[in-house]
Design brief:
Length: about 220
């Protein structure tokens, strides 16, 4: 769909030079930022690298019912010797791994929007979680459907999925990170993770830009 959009634009414009300022995983929907200037793209890429771009994601998950409305999780991020991304303890940040890479810091704020379709009313419930072990929390008790908004404060590969997995709330359809393939008799067509918004300072004018992507149907059905 995105490819067809570019082709259609190119046929109507003499300018065919485009630059991606951000990327999404294949099954993730939402905001993609494209520029028509190499210089602007370079500035935006630096803004992403310096964590000056504010991002929100929304995900439909299955797992244990969260006890808090807001959860900030801080951990390390690294790759195993086989290349798989993993959550590491916060104290491991800076440590060199057998793969040759090092553990980097990773932080995400999660806000629970609904549980089994009912709005989360724990208005003042909040917790900070500092990961002390490499393992995940794991699933305990009955599974519920949870709609969660994520505010990543760093930009590590598969960061949101890894932190969801650690908390025991798994993105529907994301079988790579233990997400269910089916829920309530419905097959999940791709993982239900959506890049909801981007906000940043325009690299030329300095004005604040906010871009929102329309929510997919699964995000409004609970």
């Amino acid at each position: 769909m995105l490819r067809n959009l570019f082709i259609g634009f190119c046929t109507q414009s003499k300018k065919t030079e485009f630059h991606l300022a951000n990327r999404l995983d294949r099954d993730t929907s939402g905001v993609i930022l494209v520029t028509k200037s190499h210089n602007v793209a370079a500035k935006l890429v630096k803004a992403f690298t310096d964590h000056k771009v504010r991002k929100t994601y929304i995900a439909s998950c299955v797992g244990q019912a969260p006890k808090w409305k807001k959860m900030t999780i801080k951990s390390g991020h690294g790759r195993s010797k086989f290349g798989a991304c993993r959550v590491y303890a916060a104290k491991d940040v800076g440590r060199t791994l057998p793969s040759g890479s090092s553990v980097r810091d990773m932080e995400t704020l999660f806000e629970v929007l609904s549980i089994n379709g009912d709005q989360c009313n724990q208005e003042s419930s909040e917790i900070d979680i500092v990961v002390e072990k490499k393992s995940s929390v794991g699933l305990v008790g009955n599974k519920v459907a949870v709609l969660v908004r994520a505010y990543p404060r760093s930009g590590r590969t598969h960061q949101i999925q890894l932190h969801y997995q650690y908390l025991g709330i798994l993105v529907k359809g994301d079988v790579k990170y233990e997400g269910v393939y089916k829920w309530n008799g419905r097959v999940c067509d791709g993982h239900q993770l959506h890049a909801e918004s981007l906000s940043f300072e325009h690299p030329v004018t300095g004005s604040t830009i906010v871009i929102n992507a329309p929510l997919p149907s699964w995000a409004t059905q609970g």
